[in-house]
Amino acid sequence: MTAQIDVDILTADQAAIELARLAGILAGANHDYHSADDPRLDDATYDALKQRNAAIEARFPELKRADSPSEQVGAAPAEGFSKVTHAVAMLSLSNAFDAEDVTEFDARIRKFLGLGPDAPLAFTAEPKIDGLSLSLRYENGALVQAATRGDGAVGENVTANARTIADIPEKITDAPAVLEVRGEVYMSHTDFEALNSRQLDAGAKAFANPRNAAAGSLRQLDSRITQARPLKFFAYAWGAVSAPLADTQKNAIDRLQAFGFATNPLTALCNGPAELLTHYEKIETQRATLGYDIDGVVYKVNDLALQERLGFRSTTPRWAIAHKFAAELAWTWLTGIDIQVGRTGALSPVARLQPVTVGGVVVSNATLHNEDYIKGLDSKGGEIRGGKDIRIGDWVQVYRAGDVIPKIADVDLSRRPENAKAFVFPDTCPECGSEALREPGDAVRRCTGGLICPAQAVEKLKHFVSRAAFDIEGLGARQVEQFYTDGWIAEPADIFTLKERYSQGLQQLKNREGWGEKSATNLFHSIDEKRRIPLDRLIFALGIRHMGEAASSLVAMHYGDWSTFETAMKKAAPLEGAAWEDLIDIDGVGSVMAGSLVSAFAQERERASIDRLIAQLEVQPVTRPDTSGSPVAGKVVVFTGTLEQMSRAEAKARAERLGAKVSGSVSAKTDILVAGPGAGSKAKKAADLGVETLSEGEWLKLIGAS
Questions:
Q1: H or E stretch including 189?
Q2: CATH of domain 534-620
Q3: Cβ–Cβ contacts within 10 Å for residue 500, how many?
């Protein structure tokens, strides 16, 4: 794709193709953000694509498209609202991403105005609210019209909805005869959480972040819905005005405040880039505690006469710029550390954070991985974060990229509370009180409670019904948790007795909240359909540590049916002998995985739970490939060295289809060693044991693939 080619080496043809691609992506992103209130592209990606588009246009100005993203502001007004043509266009701002961009912004203005580097030049700096732009038109002091930005020239008439917002006065005094007040509609973090809670209680979709909630609430066709939503408004600019408000930006903002509008108290006057950057850092450190979302700081030339001289480009003013925060990073307070217990007993620490929006998502939790990570150490004992540990009360930097789980990237020790204590990782399970042990070589501490641990039990049940396991329609993680909490199921076997226990009598599934006769009947039918289960899916569903889908498939293929598998696990219990050797000889199954598998069948309580489950099931054997006539059926084959005509995975799959058993090590049971260039100790051992050794070509000839 041309998106991977550096702009400096693009050909004209490649540039034209890339500009078309970018125009399509960014137009869709503008629609999602401004019209649908459901952005699917994160801010960092959007900004990077827009910067790339601008760089290509700068290099190939003759290729600039009529629908160029650099000429777009917002998106077309949505259907359902009447249209409002703005008397003064509502333009967007150009962006700064680092200190150098801010210094260049100051230098460009001085050059345009003919000001020397030492001439006084004041700016205002204010938080950039992450909400929905709104223009309010007042005539003779009365609110007559409210409109969204739309595409900058034409917006949506949302007057009825705007009148429901308490921060927007219906009348103002001592104002010019015509005044368009501009600002941002937003929602506070507290109100956002309460709204989402109500949404979920009503069975409706939760909003991703306060900006989406505010935009979706303001752009309702029914103003009664808007009235029920807790919207707020900050004023920070103006459009059409019949008489000047003031001589400076700061004085004009103060006058808007005198009219009764809420203005941002963090707005400050700054002289030059150094003061702008200092104020930027001050606002950034307060970001998580403001109670509302901001995504940067806006700088504007303070003198309105100079603003007039500077004027506008096609879509942005020359006299203003938005200094954006890094979209994937944010600072906030760590308010607590909780320990969660997983289905394998792993104790996982989770950071509880003062909510902050990172990459378009409200983040209130972050993974802390394990106890070493909290101490500032990696898995090998080396320092991370400069060796800084993590403590409750710390001011921490949160990192999130795409769908990656949020992490703690850094700790500001200068803001650490004096009474903050080093976190002591528990050595007992917080759920059941059982001892939590950390085995040598394991980065994770684990609860030894097994099935008596409620956290492990419910997580194992969730895994049991997951898509790759039993995949019972109508029985997901939420339902499992409800049934477990209410004592309806405690182990997998209980799922298959739900019908006999709760389809009749005083307690019936159909009478539970959220259930009816049809949904209950459907669930019982789905459960019955899963009584027939292939061996590989059953092994995976048991949730045995280290037994993923691939490993479960390997083991099932090796043993074929439940009876053979079960008998082998019993015989392998001593972790030695023929059955044990046979198990660890399966290619892809090492001693750690094998030990975990055998241990599950050796523990009395866990084995009893498995037996109760099997009594409810018909376990289907794994269908083996037809290997009649295969020259290697039943033979144990080992591949070593470099294979030149096929990958190791392809060689293994082909051998297994022909009925061979592929092993990872050479032993007396090995029938054939296929040795490519670089074969080492395995080739020597095969020679010592008298194992037949073939080249890759000889192997392919043997199986008829040459």
A1: helix 189-201
A2: 1.10.150.20
A3: 9
Q: Which CATH number, 1.10.10.10, 1.10.287.610, 1.10.580.10, 1.10.150.20, labels domain 2-72?
A: 1.10.287.610
pLDDT of residue 78 exceeding 70, the answer is: no
Does 297 have pLDDT greater than 50?
Answer: yes
Full-model pTM? 0.53
CATH 3.40.50.720 assigned to domain 95-324? The reply is no
Q: State yes or no: is 171 an active-site residue.
A: no
Report which of 92, 96, 37 is spatially closest to residue 296, judged by C-alpha positions: 96
Token pair in block for residue 261: 């509008």
Yes or no: is domain 449-530 CATH 1.10.150.20? yes
Alpha carbon distance 566, 612 (integer Å): 14
DSSP class per residue in 544-595: -TT--HHHHHHHHHHH-SHHHHHHHHHHTTTS-SHHHHHHHTSTT--HHHHH
Buried b (16+ CB within 10 A) or exposed e, 452-484: ebbbbbbbbbbbbbbeebbbbeebeeebbeebb
Break the chain into its structural domains and give their ranges: 2-72, 95-324, 335-415, 449-530, 534-620, 636-702
Instruction: Look up the CATH superfamily of 636-702.
Output: BRCT domain (3.40.50.10190)
296 φ, ψ (degrees, to nearest 5): 165, -165
Q: How far is CA 364 from CA 41, 133, 331, 367, in A?
A: 21, 26, 12, 11
How many other C-beta atoms are found inside a 10 Å radius of the C-beta of residue 649?
Answer: 9
Whether pLDDT at 403 is above 70: no
CB atoms under 10 Å from CB of 235, counted, come to 22
Domains 95-324 and 449-530 share a fold: no
| pLDDT for the residue numbered 353 | 94
Dump pLDDT digits (tens) for 605-640. 788 889 999 999 999 998 766 777 889 888 899 998
Annotated catalytic residue: which of 128, 388, 661, 682? Answer: 128
Q: Which CATH class is domain 335-415?
A: mainly beta
Three-state DSSP string of 599-646: HHHHCHHHHHHHHHHHCCCEEECCCCCCCCCCCCCCCEEEEECCCCCC
